[in-house]
Design brief:
81 residues; globular
C-alpha cells in the first residue's frame, strides 16, 4: 500500500488518514467535556472529510460507521459538504 496523506481537523491536533481513523477521531473529539470548543471541533471535523477519501476507502464497515455518525452522531458533527 502506498503512502496515504495525513489529514488534520482544523483547530485541533487530531490527525487521521482513513475513514476508520476519521471515525475514531470523531469519537475522541466527542469524548471531550462539553464546551463551545468541542462543538467547533466537531463541526470542523465533519466538514473536513474529503470526498476523495470516501472514494478510495475499501473498508465498507468504516464507511457505514462514518455515515451513521454523520446522520445520528453528536450534534455539530453534521454532514460534510
Amino acid at each position: 500500500m502506498g503512502t496515504r496523506y495525513r489529514y488534520r481537523t482544523p483547530g485541533t491536533r487530531v490527525t487521521w488518514s482513513s475513514i476508520g481513523e476519521w471515525v475514531a477521531a470523531a469519537r475522541q473529539i466527542d469524548c471531550r467535556r462539553l464546551s463551545a470548543q468541542r462543538r467547533r471541533a466537531l463541526e470542523a471535523h465533519g466538514g473536513c472529510l474529503p470526498r476523495i477519501l470516501i472514494d478510495i476507502e475499501a473498508d465498507l464497515d468504516a464507511i457505514e460507521e462514518a455515515l451513521y455518525l454523520l446522520k445520528y452522531g453528536p450534534t455539530g458533527l453534521g454532514a460534510p459538504p
